[in-house]
C-alpha cells in the first residue's frame, strides 16, 4: 500500500530548498525594488492566500452548476461569486471569469463571434496595440485577416478619421479598441459609431484601465461595446487571469463556448478564487481612492520626467501608464537594464513611428499601479522620476547606479510588503 512521504501534507517551501531560494529571491526583489512595469501590480495577502489555496487540487469543466465533473459544490459557489462580483463592479449583465489570461479572453471572443478568415480592425502593436489583437506571430494573426490602425504623427493619439476610413474600406466583422501601451483616454462612443456604420462588432480590451473605468476615473466602455475583455491584475490589482463582460444575452452561448471548449479546458479554480477576492476588494470604497491615487501619482511621475527633459509620448497620460521617449538619450533596452540594476523595474517599449526594432526600441513603458498599491504618494513618485532621469542620462555610470540603488532601498524600506514566505 502507498504511503505519502513524511511531511507531504505539512512541509512547506523548506521541503525544497532550491525552489524556496528562488521564490524568496523574488520576494526580496519585490520588497527592495520599485515595480514600474504596467502589466504588474501588488496583490493583497487575501488574493495570495485565495490563489494559493486547496482549490489547486480541484478540476472542473463547464459552467458553474453545469459541470462535467463531480464534487463541484464549493467550486460552483466560488465561480458564481466571482461572476456576481464582476457584474456588480462593472454594471453589466453577463460575465465569464474563466479565461486563464487576457489573451485567452480575446481569443475566445474572436472564436465565439467570428468565422476564420474574418476581417478584424485593431490597433497596430507599433502604435500601442496588444499582440493578442492580431499580431502576425499569434494564432489570431494567423486565423483572421487583420487590418491595423495607428495614431496621428502630430498628436500620437488615435486618428478616428483613419479608423473610419479603414473600416469603410475593409468592412471588418469586428473592431477592437484598447491597447497595451496607449496612455490616453479612448472615445468609445466614436468607435461605436464607426462599428455601426459598417455593421461590425465592437470589442474593447480594457486590461490596462479596468480599475479606473470601474471607479469612474476613465471612460466606461460597457455602454458602447458589444463585448469587453480585461485582465484581473494590472489596474484591478488582483489575480492573474482574464474576464469577459457583455450585456446582450443573445451573445452568451457564443462567448461562453468560445472560452470553453473553444480555447481552453479545465477552469483554474485557484485563479478564479483569486479573481473573486480582488473583485470583492474592488467593490469597496477604498478601491476608488486607490485609482484616484494611481492617476495623481502617474501625473506626478510624468511631470517630473518632463521637467528632467524627457519627452512623454502624446505629451502625458490619462491613465496609470505612460510612454517615455528616450530618443537622443539612450535606447530602451540599455535604459531598462540600467534601471533594473538600480532597483527600478521597467520594460522597454516601442514608441509610435519608432525607427528602432522592438529588441532595442526608443522608449520605456512605466506605470504607477504597483507603487500606488504599496503606498507611494506623489512625493515618492517625484523622487522616482528624478532617479529614472539620472539613470537614463548615464546608464553606464556605476556610481550613479549605486547611489540610485541606495535611494530605492531607503524608499522601499519605508513601505514594506508581505512577510518572508
**Number of DSSP helical runs:** 15
The total domain count is: 2
What is the 3D shape? globular
Q: What is the averaged pLDDT score? A: 96
Main β-sheet: number of strands, strand sense, barrel status? 7 strands, mixed
Gap between N and C termini? 34 Å
Number of strands: 15
What's the gyration radius in Å?
A: 22 Å
Structure description:
With 421 residues, the protein is of the alpha/beta class. Helices cover 43% and strands 13% of the residues. It has 15 helices and 15 strands. It has helices at residues 17-32, 45-51, 73-90, 102-113, 139-143, 160-170, 188-198, 210-214, 252-263, 269-282, 285-307, 332-341, 369-374, 378-393, 398-413; strands at residues 34-35, 62-63, 66-67, 94-96, 119-123, 145-149, 174-177, 201-205, 227-231, 242-246, 311-312, 321-325, 344-345, 347-349, 363-367. Helix 5 links the parallel strand 5 (119-123) and strand 6. The model has no long low-confidence stretch (mean pLDDT 96).
Summarize the topology.
Elements: H1 17-32, E1 34-35, H2 45-51, E2 62-63, E3 66-67, H3 73-90, E4 94-96, H4 102-113, E5 119-123, H5 139-143, E6 145-149, H6 160-170, E7 174-177, H7 188-198, E8 201-205, H8 210-214, E9 227-231, E10 242-246, H9 252-263, H10 269-282, H11 285-307, E11 311-312, E12 321-325, H12 332-341, E13 344-345, E14 347-349, E15 363-367, H13 369-374, H14 378-393, H15 398-413
Parallel strand pairs: 1-13, 5-6, 5-7, 7-8, 8-9
Antiparallel strand pairs: 2-3, 4-10, 9-10, 11-12, 12-15, 14-15
Short structural summary:
The chain is an alpha/beta fold and 421 residues long. Helices cover 43% and strands 13% of the residues.
Amino acid at each position: 500500500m502507498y504511503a505519502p512521504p513524511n511531511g507531504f501534507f505539512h512541509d512547506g517551501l523548506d521541503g525544497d530548498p532550491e525552489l524556496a531560494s528562488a521564490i524568496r529571491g523574488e520576494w526580496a526583489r519585490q520588497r527592495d525594488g520599485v515595480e514600474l512595469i504596467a502589466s504588474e501590480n501588488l496583490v493583497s495577502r487575501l488574493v495570495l492566500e485565495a490563489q494559493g489555496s486547496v482549490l489547486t487540487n480541484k478540476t472542473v469543466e463547464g459552467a458553474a452548476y453545469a459541470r462535467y465533473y463531480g464534487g463541484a459544490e464549493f467550486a460552483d459557489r466560488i465561480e458564481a461569486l466571482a461572476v456576481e462580483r464582476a457584474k456588480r463592479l462593472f454594471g453589466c449583465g453577463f460575465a465569464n471569469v474563466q479565461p486563464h489570461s487576457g489573451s485567452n479572453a480575446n481569443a475566445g471572443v474572436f472564436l465565439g463571434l467570428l468565422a476564420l478568415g474574418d476581417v478584424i480592425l485593431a490597433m497596430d502593436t507599433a502604435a500601442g496595440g496588444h499582440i493578442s489583437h492580431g499580431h502576425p506571430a499569434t494564432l489570431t494573426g494567423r486565423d483572421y485577416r487583420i487590418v491595423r490602425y495607428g495614431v496621428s504623427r502630430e498628436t500620437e493619439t488615435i486618428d478616428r478619421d483613419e479608423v473610419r476610413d479603414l473600416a469603410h474600406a475593409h468592412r471588418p466583422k469586428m473592431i477592437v479598441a484598447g491597447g497595451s501601451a496607449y496612455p490616453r483616454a479612448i472615445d468609445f462612443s466614436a468607435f461605436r459609431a464607426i462599428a455601426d456604420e459598417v455593421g461590425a462588432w465592437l470589442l474593447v480590451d480594457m486590461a490596462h484601465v479596468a480599475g479606473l473605468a470601474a471607479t469612474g476615473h476613465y471612460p466606461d466602455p460597457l455602454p458602447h461595446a458589444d463585448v469587453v475583455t480585461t485582465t484581473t491584475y494590472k489596474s484591478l490589482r488582483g489575480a492573474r487571469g482574464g474576464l469577459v463582460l457583455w450585456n446582450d444575452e443573445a451573445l452568451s452561448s457564443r462567448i461562453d463556448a468560445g472560452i470553453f471548449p473553444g480555447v481552453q479546458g479545465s477552469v483554474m479554480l485557484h485563479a478564479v478564487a483569486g479573481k473573486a477576492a480582488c473583485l470583492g476588494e474592488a467593490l469597496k470604497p477604498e478601491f476608488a481612492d486607490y485609482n484616484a491615487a494611481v492617476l495623481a501619482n502617474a501625473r506626478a511621475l510624468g511631470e517630473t520626467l518632463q521637467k528632467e527633459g524627457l519627452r512623454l509620448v502624446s505629451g502625458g497620460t490619462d491613465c496609470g501608464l505612460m510612454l517615455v521617449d528616450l530618443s537622443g538619450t539612450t535606447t530602451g533596452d540599455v535604459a531598462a537594464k540600467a534601471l533594473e540594476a538600480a532597483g527600478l523595474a521597467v520594460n522597454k517599449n516601442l514608441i509610435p513611428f519608432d525607427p528602432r526594432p522592438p529588441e532595442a526600441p526608443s522608449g520605456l513603458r512605466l506605470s504607477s499601479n504597483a507603487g500606488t498599491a504599496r503606498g507611494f504618494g506623489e512625493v515618492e513618485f517625484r523622487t522616482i522620476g528624478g532617479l529614472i532621469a539620472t539613470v537614463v542620462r548615464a546608464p553606464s555610470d556605476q556610481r550613479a547606479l549605486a547611489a540610485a540603488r541606495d535611494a530605492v532601498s531607503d524608499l522601499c524600506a519605508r513601505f514594506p510588503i508581505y512577510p518572508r514566505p
